[in-house]
Specification:
Helix content: over 70%
Number of strands: 0
Structural class: mainly alpha
Largest sheet: none
Radius of gyration: 41 Å
Length: 129
C-alpha cells in the first residue's frame, strides 16, 4: 500500500497524469471542432438544396409556360412578326416635332434665344436675373 502512495505522489506520475489530461482535452477539442465544421457544412448544403429546389420549380414553371400555345403565339408575333389570317397590323410611329431641340420637345412659348443658349447659362439666368 505504501508503494502505491509513493507512486501516486511522485513528480513523474503527476507530470504523466497532467500530460494525459492535456492530451484528452486536446482530443476532445479536435472532436468538437470537427463536429462544428460538419454541422456548418450540413447547414450550407441544406440551404443550397433549398435554393436548387426553388430554381428547379422556377424552371419547371418556365417550361410549362413556354410550352403553352399562348406563349408560342406571343413569341411568333414579337420575334417573327407573324399575324393571324385576316388580321391587320398597325404600326404607330412617334410624331416628330419641328420645335424640338436636341431630342427634347419645347414646352410653351420659348424664345429663340433661349433655345440657342447653353444649359448652365440658362440656370445662371434663372437664379441671378
Amino acid at each position: 500500500m505504501a508503494d502505491f502512495k509513493e507512486i501516486f505522489s511522485s513528480k513523474f506520475f503527476i507530470i504523466f497524469l497532467f500530460l494525459v489530461i492535456v492530451g484528452l482535452g486536446f482530443s476532445l477539442f479536435k472532436i468538437n471542432y470537427k463536429k462544428y465544421q460538419i454541422k456548418k457544412e450540413i447547414s450550407f448544403l441544406e440551404e443550397e438544396s433549398h435554393n436548387l429546389k426553388y430554381e428547379n420549380d422556377n424552371f419547371a414553371n418556365l417550361i410549362e409556360y413556354f410550352g403553352s400555345s399562348d406563349s408560342i403565339e406571343k413569341e411568333a408575333r414579337t420575334k417573327l412578326n407573324l399575324k393571324r389570317p385576316g388580321e391587320n397590323v398597325v404600326v404607330v410611329l412617334p410624331k416628330e416635332d419641328d420645335n424640338s431641340v436636341e431630342g427634347v420637345k419645347s414646352v410653351g412659348n420659348v424664345k429663340e434665344e433661349q433655345k440657342q443658349t447653353i444649359n448652365w447659362e440658362r440656370w445662371r439666368a434663372y437664379f441671378f436675373k
